Amino acid sequence: xxxxxxxxxxxxxxxxxxxxxxxxxxxxxxxxxxxxxxxxxxxxxxxxxxxxxxxxxxxxxxxxxxxxxxxxxxxxxxxxxxxxxxxxxxxxxxxxxxxxxxxxxxxxxxxxxxxxxxxxxxxxxxxxxxxxxxxxxxxxxxxxxxxxxxxxxxxxxxxxxxxxxxxxxxxxxxxxxxxxxxxxxxxxxxxxxxxxxxxxxxxxxxxxxxxxxxxxxxxxxxxxxxxxxxxxxxxxxxxxxxxxxxxxxxxxxxxxxxxxxxxxxxxxxxxxxxxxxxxxxxxxxxxxxxxxxxxxxxxxxxxxxxxxxxxxxxxxxxxxxxxxxxxxxxxxxxxxxxxxxxxxxxxxxxxxxxxxxxxxxxxxxxxxxxxxxxxxxxxxxxxxxxxxxxxxxxxxxxxxxxxxxxxxxxxxxxxxxxxxxxxxxxxxxxxxxxxxxxxxxxxxxxxxxxxxxxxxxxxxxxxxxxxxxxxxxxxxxxxxxxxxxxxxxxxxxxxxxxxxxxxxxxxxxxxxxxxxxxxxxxxxxxxxxxxxxxxxxxxxxxxxxxxxxxxxxxxxxxxxxxxxxxxxxxxxxxxxxxxxxxxxxxxxxxxxxxxxxxxxxxxxxxxxxxxxxxxxxxxxxxxxxxxxxxxxxxxxxxxxxxxxxxxxxxxxxxxxxxxxxxxxxxxxxxxxxxxxxxxxxxxxxxxxxxxxxxxxxxxxxxxxxxxxxxxxxxxxxxxxxxxxxxxxxxxxxxxxxxxxxxxxxxxxxxxxxxxxxxxxxxx
Length: 763
Fold this sequence. Notes:
CATH superfamily of the largest domain: Hypothetical protein af1432
Shape: globular
Distance between the termini: 52 Å
Number of helices: 31
CATH architecture of the largest domain: Orthogonal Bundle
Number of domains: 6
Largest sheet: 6 strands, mixed
Number of strands: 22
Helix content: 40-55%
Radius of gyration: 31 Å
CATH class of the largest domain: Mainly Alpha
CATH topology of the largest domain: Hypothetical protein af1432
Strand content: 15-25%
């Protein structure tokens, strides 16, 4: 059997259970650890391997491999990062508590408390259930994840290695599982790897997730790159040789190599910038690695003498490192035949940090160089401290999740500016003096009354530029931030601090406003609020939305962080669990008779003809309303649902809410048919909603709205959002005469460039 082992990845077909491949992998692991670790003593790692081997004996992975291959491959990835022995041991045992009979106490007794804590931390992370469309669950899980990271960052390093190997073997999972895990990887794990500066893991996670989330695009891009591979390799080779010769002539000792840009990065640029593959400048890059920082700038001067740089494409990340401590000089140049290429120049130390991030000088590692690395590693984890501060300050899970995702995505363009004392501050592009003030300290931001940039007074909406020297003017008499500031600031930290100030200043006012909003909502809906405000029901609601007390729930409703309908729905849900209702046929008949009481007095209806166009249970002129969850229109197959006190609500038969009814509520479904012509000849217009999925590009909304205008269709609302993958989700609410007209409209929308799918709202 031919086995290919590369970077800890086992690339093979189904392996028989008695195959001895794990031992070969383990030998490679021990050799790798001995190369970088100052001690040759691997007895505890050996003990961990045999313990895991025995604990997982008889277990197989989806691929048919012996399960032990997974923890060994995870350890190989950790060894590539040159992590300490305790991390390697914990990596070997990371699944034993979760999947075998071995307990945390036994791990501690055999391998020590430090290893046991790491294994326990990884086990808890494994138990988290990421669900992309369940915001509350997702936010709570992420809170737990970052708390685990704060206790010992090695926990997340083991989890990243575990996720990387699982993604490498994702081909054995079902398509549904592939998409779920890939979405989670792209949303959470790849950004965390980026934040920790571990590009070696981040890049591979991105590409693997891209492969399963966009299989057709992945295949198409791979084939496009393969067609031109020979020419590109020849070009890179010639540039490498030429650069190396010029560098050596100047007496600079350097390593020069070329690399292709990873697939997901190319795809993002193509989508976000609406470019073809041949319009992407940096499909590949030449990298020069030298001994000293001075050599970096000398090499840059040499290169700029032989190749013409493209204006505006130079970035000095050595003087101004990225938030994850990445350092390099970046410049884009014009090659011999007019072909642009990117050049990166860095020292060997910078290269190590770029590849391995926080693991490059691990503070827990036995330091063979005798250097104190604790302070530098603490600085690199400053962003984690910010996240933990948010956790303490914020009770609203949704807001926490929004801030967190924005913060993980701060690797877009940055601006670098200075305090009046010369300290560097890096902020998101487009930041204002308000962002700067809160980056200095929340108290400075709260007392800010003005700002000077480079000695000149500026307005608070001034866009800070690279190199600006910013001075914040404060006053003890300041009344605090304005709500208008929220629309001006760009940084997550500033938004959080401003919102926090308003929550604290106006908490009592928000509590009262929230109470009034909920009371008014219940009155309009005919709901008896006093029946819902019981301790058990309130506790369920607080737990659902992550609040510690009821006043916080009211305050959240008061300042708009939580919708009153969400709160009341959760209270009702808890009420129904404690007070189950049993609907009988008599109840249904009584409800129908009540809803259709006008029918019993037909003579009185001569001037009050129902406009619903619906016949329910054989009765017309019934008090009906169209549900907003699925927006039925003439031509749709429909059903009726008998409500309590509000007549009959009409739903499409494929409405998710109707399909997921409890058994006791299914008795309340009754037959409903259209009396209105279904061919669209009626003068009546009906509200409906669709969701359009399209590749984001400039002008996509203009093209879509043009179709509605040309078809004389009134749009009531339109909402658009774009994912990190460059996919725009566009919700449109409009009026239409029936299903035939709607179908015709949807067919026209599908012809718009970039539209990949369209569907009607079902719930």
